[in-house]
TrEMBL record:
Domain of life: Bacteria
Keywords noted in UniProt: Decarboxylase, Flavoprotein, FMN, Ligase, Lyase, Magnesium, Metal-binding, Multifunctional enzyme
Pathway(s) per entry: Cofactor biosynthesis; coenzyme A biosynthesis; CoA from (R)-pantothenate: step 2/5; Cofactor biosynthesis; coenzyme A biosynthesis; CoA from (R)-pantothenate: step 3/5
Encoding gene per record: coaBC
Gene3D superfamilies listed in its UniProt record: CoaB-like (3.40.50.10300), Flavin prenyltransferase-like (3.40.50.1950)
Region (Phosphopantothenoylcysteine decarboxylase): 1-199
Protein name per UniProt: Coenzyme A biosynthesis bifunctional protein CoaBC
Residue segments, region Phosphopantothenate--cysteine ligase: 200-414
HAMAP family named in the record: CoaBC
SUPFAM superfamilies: CoaB-like, Homo-oligomeric flavin-containing Cys decarboxylases, HFCD
Species lineage: Bacteria, Bacillati, Actinomycetota, Actinomycetes, Propionibacteriales
InterPro entries for the chain: CoaB-like_sf, CoaBC, DNA/pantothenate-metab_flavo_C, Flavin_trans-like, Flavoprotein
Binding-site list for CTP: D288, K298, P316, D317, I318, L319, F336, K354, K358
Bilayer-spanning residue ranges: none
Source organism of this protein record: Nocardioides yefusunii
Cofactor binding comment, as recorded: Binds 1 FMN per subunit.
Length: 414
């Protein structure tokens, strides 16, 4: 996907500072840098001395087209330890080690990068990468909380293979996803991180109800809108749990992904995650019905050409359950309604009826007549509110629709 750079407040190319601290994942930041420069951003790389042990200064200089320094004494007449941060539209530190975040949380400034962090008045994004034990250490947990309380965005690390034979949470998210998050933050023009300190749960995709080990009942949900909601929430400072049903999309940077298949699994995962969530957005499409009896063996064709009888039962209504039985006071619940309209009412009439029946705060109504929306990168919706308000969101990218939904959620969290 080709990304046009957002305009800088000064009218010039967006000015991005890419801070790189001393972790093995530093080599992946070369790809982050490439994506920024190839999409027209003006990038200044500020590594730490330890980062240069992993990737040398010539590499950063060649990829950014600018000289690279770690020392506040280089080019001192230009006062780089002040000017770089002052002039930035966005600072991204990737990887952000436990040591770097500890210094940032406590205001230490012993090199060019930590000085830059103190002088920056633009959004600052930390992308942690470290071993699981370091990420979970109480000192790191406290430092991350401090940074987030100050309005910084600290992404959740990914889970997977770490250095050596270790596996766990602490892996640097995919560079393309880091870049996508950064672009969304720049597109908001330095707007306040209105979801900072909030935990939100998003569901995405479509559930499957198995008839036998091979066949299932399902739906056409691609998960694109749910994943766009998760990315948008991260870019606004939220901690995000994404319950993903049968989706093959890349995990968004900074998101905890819980994979599920069936509606019952989706229900269990959502209920567990909502216990401490400030907002829940049910963008997934749960199957309304499931087979009463599932065959343990593949169902064979009958010799006489007859089809097997299929008996169905209703699945639990997850949206109604979490709406009528809120896990926390003040929790905001958002549902989705994919409607086509019929003899009983128009798309919006059916949506309003569903909103009243489900008991959620907001309902995002899609007109999916003719299979529209499914698998598309674009969407148009109407956001209905329990208080009678309605917001018509014109056709745009699913990312823009996601931000419109969070625009409706954020003030209700207050």
């Amino acid at each position: 996907m080709e990304v046009a750079p957002a305009a800088s407040p000064t009218g010039t190319r967006p000015r991005v500072v890419l801070g790189v601290s001393g972790g093995i994942a530093a080599y992946k930041s070369c790809e982050v840098l490439r994506r920024f420069t190839e999409s027209g951003h003006d990038v200044t790389v500020v590594p730490t001395a330890a980062a240069l042990e992993f990737v040398g200064a010539p590499t950063w200089a060649a990829l950014s087209g600018k000289p690279v320094s770690t020392d506040v004494w280089d080019g001192v007449h230009q006062v780089p330890h002040v000017r770089i941060g002052q002039g930035a539209d966005l600072v991204v530190v990737a990887p952000a080690t436990a040591d770097l975040m500890a210094k940032a949380a406590h205001g230490l400034a012993d090199d060019l990068l930590t000085n830059t962090l103190l002088t920056a008045r633009c959004p600052v994004v930390f992308v942690p990468a470290m071993h699981t034990e370091m990420w979970e250490h109480p000192a790191t947990v406290a430092n991350v909380a401090t940074l987030r309380e100050r309005g910084n965005i600290v992404l959740e690390p990914a889970s997977g293979r770490l250095t050596g034979k270790d596996t766990g949470k602490g892996r640097l998210p995919d560079p393309s996803e880091i870049f996508e998050t950064a672009v969304q933050i720049l597109a908001r023009g330095g707007a306040e991180s209105d979801l900072a300190g909030r935990h939100v749960v998003v569901s995405a995709g479509g559930t499957r109800e198995y008839l036998d080990p091979v066949r299932f009942l399902g739906n056409r949900s691609s998960g694109l809108q749910g994943y766009a909601l998760a990315r948008a929430a991260v870019s606004r400072g939220a901690r995000v749990t994404l319950v993903s049903a049968n989706v093959t999309l890349a995990a968004p940077a900074g998101v905890d992904v819980v994979a599920v298949e069936t509606t019952e699994q989706l229900r269990a995962a959502v209920l567990a995650a909502t216990a401490e969530a400030d907002a829940v957005v049910m963008a997934a499409a749960p199957a309304d019905f499931r087979p009463t009896n599932r065959s343990e063996n593949k169902i064979k064709k009958a010799a006489d050409g007859s089809a097997p009888a299929l008996e169905l039962e209703q699945n639990p209504d997850i949206l109604a359950e979490i709406s009528h039985h809120r896990a926390r006071a003040g929790q905001v619940v958002v549902g989705f309604a994919a409607e086509t309209g019929d003899a009983s009412g128009s798309v919006l009439e059916l949506g309003r009826s569903k909103l009243a029946r489900k008991g959620c705060d907001l309902l995002v109504v899609n007109d999916v007549s003719g299979g529209a929306v499914f698998g598309s990168e674009r969407n148009d919706v109407v956001i209905l509110a329990a208080d009678g308000d309605a917001v018509d969101v014109p056709e745009g990218s699913k990312v823009s629709v996601a931000h419109a939904i969070w625009d409706a959620v954020a003030p209700r969290l207050a």
